[in-house]
Specification:
The complex is a heterodimer of chains A (about 350) and B (about 375).
Chain A (H helix, E strand, L loop, with lengths): L2 H17 L2 H10 L3 H9 L18 H13 L6 H15 L8 E3 L7 E5 L5 E11 L6 E8 L2 E8 L4 E3 L9 E11 L4 E3 L6 H33 L1 E2 L2 E2 L4 H26 L7 H26 L9 H12 L6 H15 L4 H5 L7
Parallel strand pairs in A: 1-4
Antiparallel strand pairs in A: 2-3, 3-7, 4-5, 5-8, 6-7, 9-10
Chain B lengths: L9 H17 L16 H9 L18 H14 L7 H14 L2 H12 L5 E4 L15 E5 L2 E8 L10 E7 L12 E7 L5 E6 L8 E12 L3 E2 L5 H11 L11 H10 L7 H29 L5 H26 L10 H12 L10 H13 L1
Parallel strand pairs in B: 1-4
Antiparallel strand pairs in B: 2-3, 3-7, 4-5, 5-8, 6-7
Helix pairs in contact in B: 1-3, 4-5, 4-6, 7-9, 7-10, 8-9, 9-11
The structure holds flavin-adenine dinucleotide.
């Protein structure tokens, strides 16, 4: 890791350690929000990491944003950090729209979503229904893509004019349905979408962000399980001495390392945008890792792992949600397999053997 | 634990291109790929490869090798394995015995063996397992007694891969009895000529009917002092570090790659079904990720680290994955496996089904690797 990135993650880890303890995470579940944590992150300029400074962001690149997300995942941080920089902030900056001071989320175009932008400069109106928007009701703005005639637009939709139906994922993180019904949208909230700012790229960024969160959470799950199985004694010895338990530890370590490697390489390869193969592979690997490692960690923990208070549950419930968000491992492996089949058998090895290309 | 993502330098990328060009030129169009290190034993191919400088890469030039890095060797190895190239003759000497001789051998042994190994001319087998000693290697009963000018060895080695085709094998044996319960002391390694008087190599038919395994009976075989590998009494330390070399390379996750490639070629083509696409995509994603962990270990070795736990994890996950590839593709192809149908996919699938169980046994079983890795994780 570059020195700057190491510094970034160290500062972030300190901040989360203070303001995102397991107790804080439990407390935030009731409201789906931690105001002190978000305020501290904003003061540290973390939400807009990877958004260019010229556009009002904090600078840095996709790999910086993902390194930060991996720390956030480790602490189960109940805040829309991925949505802010990698997704919403990126699209707003690319379109030349202002970055809101409050949290920003994004609608990536789910199958049942509807987005209709009508009018023209001076009289824009938005009618839309977006499902499962991460922290939708807590966000100031939600970034969506819309088409008017043949033109594509980036819209920074104000949530103040939206109706929100609360929803949540398995970890009680808000995933809300938002509707706008002919709401007026100001001119500084609509701009033509530049080439490359499209639904595919938003989805790739969303999936990469989730892979980074997963890899951070898995690193913590691995640590917790090693520690717990060393401390817990049964039959007169630490349970980590039993080979059957060791098999769980090894499995968790492998999956955590695979997810970490895959998401890190996908992030480092982004130049400047993440690529299809890297993200599809990383989300596939991370999703599978989340499934396998969460199961093994719960098995190794016994009943304590099934309590609301113990840290493992905060991580495993996020892993079970994040693996599905922005495309499950099945979705990404299917898309990846289609492209590989199209490229043909002889292209398979060259593709697999292209790992990290830029450091 | 540390697996650092690593990128290949332009020189390393160009090495990869050279190997690909070499393989395209050397392998005939009807080349029948082999499964990983079990590919064909082909001295001609080994010598041609050596002529390009791709055998004995880890050996310094003063001993006839090329003094290349672990990553360079990784690149050459993964290209050979992905092509199913016939590497069976030199593979063990190149991966294992060469480096062991370099580290523990006498100057004279290095001068004798290393140039021949690097030329692709001298092939080794491994003489560790015995009828009553598998995972518990320290229990070997083959023993060597001191005689004028050397040792005489008596005992029986089993599962000795390719002993009927190779020149020598490195025999782990007891040179002094167990004292004070310290089973790891008193073990030594001797280099035994597989054609020496008193050595009897007999086939043990392999599950698929091929001749891979042998029993090697040693009856008062004379081994001169200059064929003692390393120090008398250090055998245990030597073989356990030898196991570390062989743990995490591409031979631990690529053995069944050609099955996937041929599935893609013969099976779905562009009209791929959802299920087929999902299977191919998932396997490719995992290959990609496992490869980078394995490469990270090679890079760490070049940096002077000793990534023993990392290597054990890569082998444990990689060899299980090699087996999984086979079962996933078999399920997806939904067909009776027919080795004689003329389909390369079927032929490879049949071989992979029949020999697949060995992936998680050879070179240390999954269960033993887990114990090694788990101990490292807890400390
Ligand atoms: C294809 C192939 C090629 C081989 N080539 C060679 C060769 O060239 N030279 C050579 O010397 N050997 C060779 N071997 C042998 C190989 O090294 C052994 O198979 C391996 O070390 C395991 O020993 P074993 O087969 O006696 O099994 P065992 O050690 O008897 O093990 C049987 C089962 O018990 C388990 N087990 C044993 N001990 C423990 C424990 N402490 N904890 C948990 N589980 C345990 C094992 O994991 C395994 O599941 C080869 C094997 C194969 C399959």
């Amino acid at each position: 890791m570059s020195d700057e990135r190491t510094l970034l993650t160290e500062v972030a880890a300190g901040l989360f350690r203070d303001l995102c303890t397991p107790e804080d995470v439990v407390a935030a579940e009731a409201t789906g929000w931690s105001e002190p944590l978000w305020r501290a992150l904003t003061e540290a300029h973390f939400p807009y990491v990877s958004v260019p400074e010229t556009a009002g962001g904090s600078g840095g690149d996709v790999a910086d944003a993902c390194a930060l997300l991996s720390v956030a995942g480790r602490y189960a941080a109940p805040v829309p950090l991925a949505e802010a920089g990698l997704l919403g902030g990126w699209a707003l900056a690319a379109a030349g729209l202002p970055l809101p001071a409050g949290p920003v989320s994004v609608g990536v175009g789910r199958p049942r979503d509807v987005v209709e932008l009508t009018g023209s400069p001076g009289s824009w109106r938005l009618t839309a229904r977006l499902h499962r928007v991460p922290w939708g009701r807590r966000s100031t703005r939600v970034v969506v893509l819309a088409a008017v005639g043949g033109e594509r637009y980036v819209v920074s939709a104000p949530t103040s004019s939206a109706q929100a139906t609360p929803g949540r994922n398995l970890a009680a993180e808000p995933r809300d349905t938002l509707s706008w019904n002919g709401a007026a949208v100001s001119d500084d909230s609509v701009a033509p979408a530049p080439p490359g700012v499209d639904a595919d790229q938003l989805r790739l960024r969303g999936a990469l962000g989730r892979a980074a969160l997963i890899s951070g959470a898995l690193a913590r799950v691995a640590e917790l399980t090693v520690r717990y199985t060393d401390e817990r004694h049964q039959f007169g010895r630490p349970i980590s001495r039993f080979q059957a338990v060791q098999a769980h530890l090894v499995h968790i370590a492998e999956e955590a390392q695979l997810a970490g490697m895959a998401s890190t390489v996908a992030a480092l390869n982004a130049a400047p945008d993440p690529s299809f193969f890297d993200v599809a592979a990383a989300k596939t690997v991370a999703g599978e890792a989340a499934t396998g490692a969460a199961a093994a960690a719960h098995q190794a923990h016994g009943a304590i792992g099934m309590t609301k208070e113990y840290e493992l549950g905060q991580l495993s419930r996020r892993l079970w949600s994040w693996r599905d968000e922005f495309g499950s491992e099945r979705y990404w492996s299917r898309e990846l397999g289609r492209r590989l089949a199209e490229a043909g058998a002889d292209e398979l090895w060259p593709r697999i053997s292209t790992g990290l290309v830029s450091a | 634990m540390q697996f650092g993502p690593t990128t290949l330098s332009p020189a390393e990328e160009s090495l990869r291109r050279e190997v690909r060009e070499f393989l395209a030129a050397e392998l005939p169009p009807d080349h029948r790929p082999g499964l990983g290190m079990a590919a064909r034993h082909d001295p001609d191919f080994s010598r041609k490869l050596a002529a390009r400088g791709w055998v004995g890469m880890a050996i310094p030039p003063e001993y006839g090798g090329r003094g290349r890095t672990a990553v360079d060797r990784f690149i050459v190895t993964e290209e050979l394995l992905a092509a199913g190239a016939p590497i069976g003759a030199h593979f063990v000497a190149d991966r294992q015995t060469g480096p062991a001789l370099l580290h523990y051998g006498t100057e004279q042994q290095r001068r004798t063996f290393l140039p021949a190994i690097s030329a692709g001319d001298c092939y080794f087998s491994l003489g560790m397992s015995e009828p009553d000693s598998g995972s518990d290697l320290a229990s070997v009963r083959t023993r060597a007694s001191r005689v004028e000018g050397g040792w005489t060895v008596t005992g029986t080695k089993v599962w000795t891969s390719l002993a009927h085709l190779n020149h020598f094998f490195a025999v782990l044996c007891r040179t002094s009895p167990v004292e004070d319960g310290n089973r790891h002391a008193g073990l030594s390694q001797l280099i035994v000529d597989l054609h020496a008087p008193g050595v009897t190599v007999s086939p043990i038919p392999y599950l698929d009917g091929s001749h891979h395994f042998n029993e090697v009976a040693l009856e008062d075989v004379f081994v001169p002092d200059e064929r003692v590998l390393g120090e008398i009494g250090s055998g245990w330390r030597q073989v356990t570090s030898e196991l570390a070399y062989e743990r995490s390379g591409p031979d631990r996750w690529l053995s069944t790659f050609t099955v996937l490639r041929e599935f893609l070629r013969e099976g779905p083509g562009k009209a791929v079904s959802d299920e087929e696409a999902t299977v191919v995509g998932r396997l490719a994603a995992r290959y990609w990720a496992i490869r980078q962990l394995s490469l990270a270990v090679a890079r760490a070795l070049d940096a002077g680290a000793a990534p023993a736990v990392e290597a054990a994890l890569v082998k444990e996950v990689g060899t299980r994955f090699e087996q999984e590839v086979v079962e996933v593709l078999r399920t997806c192809a939904e067909t009776e496996v027919d080795a004689d149908s003329g389909s390369l996919f079927h032929a490879l699938l049949a071989e992979a089904v029949l020999t697949g169980p060995s992936f998680t046994l050879r070179g240390g079983t999954t269960e033993i690797l887990r114990s090694v890795a788990a101990k490292g994780l807890s400390t």
